[in-house]
Specification:
Blueprint (H helix, E strand, L loop, with lengths): L1 H8 L4 H5 L5 H10 L2 H9 L6 H13 L3 H17 L2
Helix pairs in contact: 1-3, 1-5, 4-5
């Protein structure tokens, strides 16, 4: 999940830009959206304090276009985790 975050958070290097690949970061985020529910599943299956959950949340924050859905799911997840023993 850490590597996926690095991929979706990245921007093309100067060399990539010179080669005309200025949309590389957007293309990576678009590709990652194809598996968005898998990333949500990984986040929801983990406690918020776990690195996997934290990285999944960071990935989702970068690729989720529906901010209301992201806020609702993350908010409910954090609330539930706070009340779990």
């Amino acid at each position: 999940m850490e590597l996926l975050f690095q991929i979706v958070a990245g921007v093309p290097s100067g060399r990539e830009a010179e080669l005309g690949n200025i949309g590389l970061g957007d293309a990576c985020r678009t590709a990652a959206r194809e598996g968005i529910w898998l990333i949500y599943r990984e986040m929801l299956a983990s406690r918020p304090t776990e690195a996997l959950a934290e990285n999944a949340r960071y990935v989702l924050d970068r690729i989720e276009l529906d901010r209301d859905r992201f806020d609702s799911i993350v908010g409910a997840w954090l609330e539930t985790a706070a009340t779990d023993p």
